[in-house]
């Protein structure tokens, strides 16, 4: 206890640690799990996972003390903020020393330590003549020194004589930090290059240049805009559809800034000390560029920057176009003006980019079987005509012409060797890429209650196909490949099974973990199911999914869940249930006077219009007066919160586009008053659509089509 440990956790309820620390002139405060973390100094805390003798009374004896083997399981600890801190510490710590601890009974602790990224940091100190069963378990979960307590104390004492501690710890964990760091030359194998273009597996060595030019990557024009203007802009907002190069764009910006006098921070993962790292970034005397890929799922991170001051910080943020929040949300989170935001678009290559990419493909022999001409001009034509100048289309073409699908399908269908838990882990890994889930490999193991050390030997072929255990992440990073595997190999039922299992575990944690709350919001989003075919069976599976989780704590009092449940029921044509879900959402929203139910109103509007159109085709045709009443109510709800900063106007326009279907069904039945009402609503909706089309630098093809259809609605 002469060492200043980062944190101490113990399953003992005595005061041995605190007493030994006092003898070394150090103070450690005993903490029990019922103590609020906000009222404690976590940097001098000795957390007693099984209770502490000083806090023993009739209540804690029954509820907090763990005295028998069965009570050592972690189920009761899940959802406790101190246990959440413990799991975060296992990931962010440089080293984990475990002294005299048997894991024969502590099944869940053993599982937490079995993750590869944790296991490599674990050192067990135990007795020289340990029970053989205990010894085997420990060796499977970390490095072992069977030297006993005294032997460990002697080692510490010996090393202290020569050890000189660093005055400050400059290392970042949540962010990858670089300042004028030279990229070391490294050979790239053809296999690695092939893996990048077919599966999206990026390595820093791919960013090497030859005579100032990239050999393997396409330097997008938008990167140059960031480099030229980063000191004069607060935010570069980079958007594109799924699979069109946002993640590689971040790596290119990071690489180009190596030559400039600027600190670069690429957000990697939210660890325990993330707040401290943000404070250090904001207090940096020089200029900093902070790069956050898929920032929509990391809004709380942005808010923390605002609180610490961003006068010398520039942000490069990426988002999928379909889920990109409005400027007003970003302005509020960072405390900036709209003029501080510079939008950049990556969906398509310009002519110069197309030429450069064709050269990279030809020079590196990255041909596709669908290329009929492999000259520079032939490949350029292939990119333009076959792939529509889009990365996503190229990746999909490479995927379909490779053996990835066949190889993974064969392994996936080998049910004899692949357990349900490991299959769920594979699916969750694919979901991470497609759904933007910010959970690493270790956290995914925890979510699925999977002891990796126990299954790795038995299922190594399957695991090695999906996971890169050395980097604590999954191998398949291409969102396009992941999406196609989910769609064509995994299937809807297996996906829903994994989503349910993940949601049930995350539900235990969300009250103490903001990241688990965001994960739950992500997973219950109805938009994830759009990649599957819309048939009656699929709709039934999806609506049943929502029905099966409705009694979870998170879902019960969450407006977003009931909105998504309602959307699923509307698509399944179960309008009675959909309406009840909407009523639930409104009722829950009223409990918070500050909450504006803008999205609930939009879904109610969709419900009204979809039910009207469904009644028409099922022989319950409403009258013209009933139809115009429905249209009017739908329109009023769509317009009620149209200008709310968080409102998804794309969803509003998707509903508004159905005005044309109402017109086509009642064009010959409306009287003059009804025609006037319809025209008024149509004109207002069309005006907003055109304003949106005009304000965007990129043509929104569906919106353009919807506007054209509405323009045809003339009496």
What does this structure look like?
The chain has 715 residues and is α/β, with parallel strands linked by helices. The chain has 34 helices and 16 strands. A hairpin with a 2-residue loop joins β8 (209-210) and β9. It is globular, with a radius of gyration of 29 Å. The mean pLDDT is 88.
Q: What is the number of helices?
A: 34
Describe the largest sheet. 6 strands, mixed
Distance between the termini: 86 Å
Beta fraction: 5-15%
What Rg, in angstroms, do the CA atoms define?
Answer: 29 Å
State mean pLDDT (0 to 100 scale). 88
Number of strands: 16
The percent of residues in helical segments reads 40-55%
Shape: globular
Strand order of the largest sheet: 7-11-12-13-10-14
Specify the structural class. alpha/beta
Unreliable stretches covering 5 or more consecutive residues: none
Summarize it:
The chain is an alpha/beta fold. The chain is built from 34 helices and 16 strands.
């Amino acid at each position: 206890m002469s060492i200043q440990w980062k944190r101490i956790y113990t399953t003992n309820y005595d005061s041995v640690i605190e007493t030994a620390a006092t003898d070394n002139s150090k103070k450690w405060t005993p903490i029990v799990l019922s103590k609020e973390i906000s009222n404690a100094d976590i940097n001098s805390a000795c957390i007693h996972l099984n209770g502490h003798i000083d806090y023993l009374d009739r209540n804690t004896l029954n509820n907090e003390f763990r005295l028998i083997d069965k009570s050592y399981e972690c189920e009761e600890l899940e959802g406790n903020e101190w246990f959440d801190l413990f799991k975060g510490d296992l990931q962010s710590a440089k080293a984990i020393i475990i002294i005299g601890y048997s894991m024969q009974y502590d099944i869940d602790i053993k599982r937490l330590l079995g993750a590869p990224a944790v296991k490599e940091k674990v050192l067990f100190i135990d007795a020289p003549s340990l029970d053989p069963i205990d010894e085997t378990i420990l060796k499977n979960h970390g490095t072992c020194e069977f030297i006993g307590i005294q032997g460990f104390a002697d080692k510490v004492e010996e090393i202290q004589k020569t050890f000189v501690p660093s005055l400050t710890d400059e290392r970042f964990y949540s962010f990858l930090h670089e300042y004028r760091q030279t990229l070391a030359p490294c050979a790239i194998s053809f296999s690695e290059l092939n893996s990048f273009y077919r599966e999206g597996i990026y390595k820093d060595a791919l960013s090497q240049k030859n005579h100032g030019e990239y050999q393997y990557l396409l330097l997008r024009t938008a990167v140059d805009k960031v480099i030229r203007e980063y000191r004069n802009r607060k935010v570069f907002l980079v958007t594109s559809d799924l699979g069109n190069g946002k993640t590689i764009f971040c790596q290119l910006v990071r690489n180009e800034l190596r030559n400039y006098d600027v600190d670069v921070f690429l957000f990697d993962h939210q660890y325990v000390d993330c707040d401290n790292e943000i404070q250090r970034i904001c207090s940096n005397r020089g200029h900093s560029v902070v790069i956050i890929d898929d920032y929509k799922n990391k809004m709380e991170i942005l808010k923390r920057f605002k609180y610490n001051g961003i006068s010398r910080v520039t942000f490069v943020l990426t988002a999928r176009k379909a889920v990109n929040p409005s400027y007003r949300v970003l302005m509020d989170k960072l405390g900036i003006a709209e003029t501080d935001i510079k939008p950049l678009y990556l969906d398509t290559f310009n002519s110069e980019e197309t030429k450069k990419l064709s050269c990279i493909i030809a020079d590196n022999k990255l041909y596709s079987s669908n290329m009929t001409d492999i000259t520079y001009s032939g490949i350029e034509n292939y990119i333009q005509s076959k792939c529509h100048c889009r990365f996503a289309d190229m990746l999909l073409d490479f995927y379909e012409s490779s053996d990835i699908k066949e190889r993974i399908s064969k392994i996936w269908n080998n049910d004899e060797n692949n357990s349900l838990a490991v299959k769920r882990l594979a699916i969750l890994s694919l979901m991470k890429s497609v759904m933007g889930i910010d959970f690493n490999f270790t956290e995914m193991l925890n979510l699925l209650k999977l002891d990796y050390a126990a299954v790795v030997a038995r299922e190594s072929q399957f695991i090695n196909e999906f996971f890169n255990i050395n980097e604590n992440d999954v191998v398949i990073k291409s969102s396009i490949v992941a999406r196609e595997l989910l769609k064509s190999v995994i299937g809807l039922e297996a996906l829903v099974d994994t989503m349910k299992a993940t949601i049930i575990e995350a539900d235990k944690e969300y009250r103490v973990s903001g990241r688990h709350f965001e994960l739950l919001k992500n997973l219950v989003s109805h938009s994830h199911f759009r990649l599957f075919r819309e048939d009656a069976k699929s709709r039934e599976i999806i609506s049943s999914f929502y029905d099966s989780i409705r009694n979870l704590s998170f879902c019960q009092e969450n407006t977003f869940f009931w909105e998504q449940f309602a959307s699923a029921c509307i698509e399944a044509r179960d309008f009675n249930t959909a309406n009840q879900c909407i009523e639930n959402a409104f009722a829950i929203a009223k409990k918070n006077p500050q909450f504006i139910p803008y999205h609930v109103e939009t879904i109610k509007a969709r419900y009204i219009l979809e039910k009207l159109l469904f009644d028409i085709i099922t022989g319950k045709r409403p009258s013209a007066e009933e139809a115009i009443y429905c249209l009017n109510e739908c329109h009023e709800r769509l317009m009620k919160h149209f200008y709310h900063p968080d409102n998804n106007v794309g969803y509003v326009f998707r509903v508004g586009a159905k005005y044309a279907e109402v017109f086509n069904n009642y064009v010959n039945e409306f009287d003059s008053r009804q025609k006037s009402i319809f025209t008024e609503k149509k004109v207002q909706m069309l005006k907003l659509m055109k304003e949106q089309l005009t304000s965007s630098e990129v043509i929104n093809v569906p919106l353009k089509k919807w506007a054209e259809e509405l323009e045809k609605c003339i009496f």
